[in-house]
């Protein structure tokens, strides 16, 4: 396992301190346009679903996933964890004009943490992360922006905490610690929202996701053409002694990091508001809304 140079150590320290890395120069506009053009007929086929998914095997088959896992992103991932494996790997699309979140995050205005084993850490002491790549423009909260509370991976959510509301044009790419409070804002715009999501943890720990058929099928389609991507897709899951680290040599090419704007403030509902929301949610659920 290669040691980290000063720039790589600075990136790792930034992730450990802030819990979020917002990249500036990951993908070209021509590449993003090509991905969307390839994905358009797939999502058209799934148009009747409120939230539709293109899974890893189809992303490999379409030629998208290998381009997503470019050298800059592989460099970042291997700095944080030399033994990375996917938890999630899909592209999803949400229709416009939503009036509620499509996920069951009603009680804290959508804020939540992802559940994970607290002992799952890389050898560089980094916790599991997720990566978002916007494939549509996200101009404001009403376009379904992602919001996260940096530097707070333990303790209850409180009001008036600084949060980062991530907006931007298609191609906006960022990585965050899954221990942080985060939420997807509701897409109230008329535009569909399209996002690529990757989640990564250390290989060798419990991982029911990587054992699903879409990951096994993705490996079969990929074949032996890309050993680093195959590792991420689970080629050495449960067989760590064969290859202890991802077969990839860092090139030193790291993306520029965009400064984090933490000017938003959290607002936590009162106990009475949470009780009313819980009752309304159960009532709406019983009526099939």
In short:
Helix content is 29%, strand content 18%.
Secondary-structure map with pairings?
Elements: H1 6-18, E1 20-23, H2 29-45, E2 51-54, H3 56-61, H4 64-68, H5 71-80, E3 84-94, E4 129-134, E5 146-148, E6 162-166, E7 173-177, E8 182-184, E9 193-202, H6 213-222, H7 227-232, E10 264-265, H8 271-287
Antiparallel strand pairs: 1-7, 2-3, 3-9, 4-7, 4-9, 5-6, 5-8, 6-10
| N-to-C span | 52 Å
* Mean pLDDT, all residues: 91
Largest sheet strand order: 1-7-4-9-3-2
Q: Give the overall silhouette.
A: globular
SSE pattern: HEHEHHHEEEEEEEHHEH
Strand content: 15-25%
The total of helices stands at 8
Whole-number radius of gyration? Answer: 19 Å
Are there runs of 5+ residues with pLDDT below 50, and where?
A: none
Q: Strand count, sense and closure of the main sheet?
A: 6 strands, antiparallel
Instruction: Please tally the β strands and state the result.
Output: 10
Roughly what percent helix?
25-40%
Structural class per helix/strand content?
Answer: alpha+beta
What would your notes on this structure say?
With 289 residues, this protein is an alpha+beta fold. It is 29% helix and 18% strand. The chain contains 8 helices and 10 strands. The strands form 2 sheets. A 6-stranded antiparallel β-sheet has the order 1-7-4-9-3-2. Strands 8-5-6-10 form a 4-stranded antiparallel β-sheet, with no helix packed on it. The longest helix has 17 residues, at 29-45. It is globular. The relative contact order is 0.22.
Feature tags:
8 helices; 289 residues; four-stranded antiparallel beta sheet; globular
């Amino acid at each position: 396992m290669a040691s980290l140079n000063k720039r790589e150590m600075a990136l790792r320290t930034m992730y450990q301190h802030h819990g979020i890395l917002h990249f500036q120069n990951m993908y070209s506009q021509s590449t993003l346009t090509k991905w969307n053009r390839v994905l358009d007929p797939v999502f058209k086929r799934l148009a009747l679903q409120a939230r539709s998914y293109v899974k890893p095997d189809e992303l490999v088959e379409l030629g998208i996933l290998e381009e997503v896992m470019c050298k800059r992103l592989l460099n970042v991932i291997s700095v944080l964890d030399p033994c990375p494996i996917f938890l999630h790997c899909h592209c999803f699309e949400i229709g416009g004009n939503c009036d509620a979140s499509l996920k069951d995050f009603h009680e804290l205005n959508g804020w939540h943490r992802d559940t994970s084993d607290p002992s799952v850490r890389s050898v560089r002491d980094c916790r599991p992360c997720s990566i978002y790549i916007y494939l549509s423009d996200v101009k404001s909260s009403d376009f379904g922006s992602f919001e996260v509370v940096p530097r707070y991976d333990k303790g209850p959510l409180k009001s008036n905490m600084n949060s980062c509301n991530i907006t931007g044009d298609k191609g906006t790419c960022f990585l965050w610690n899954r221990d942080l409070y985060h939420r997807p804002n509701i897409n109230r715009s008329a535009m569909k929202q399209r996002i690529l999501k990757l989640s990564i943890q250390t290989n060798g720990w419990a991982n029911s996701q990587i054992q699903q058929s879409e990951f096994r099928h993705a490996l079969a389609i990929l074949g032996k053409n890309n050993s680093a991507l195959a590792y991420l897709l689970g080629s050495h899951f449960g067989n760590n002694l064969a290859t202890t680290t991802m077969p990839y040599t860092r090139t030193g090419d790291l993306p520029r990091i965009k400064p984090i704007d933490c000017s938003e403030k959290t607002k936590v509902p009162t106990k009475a508001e949470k009780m009313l929301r819980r009752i309304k949610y159960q009532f709406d659920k019983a009526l099939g809304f």
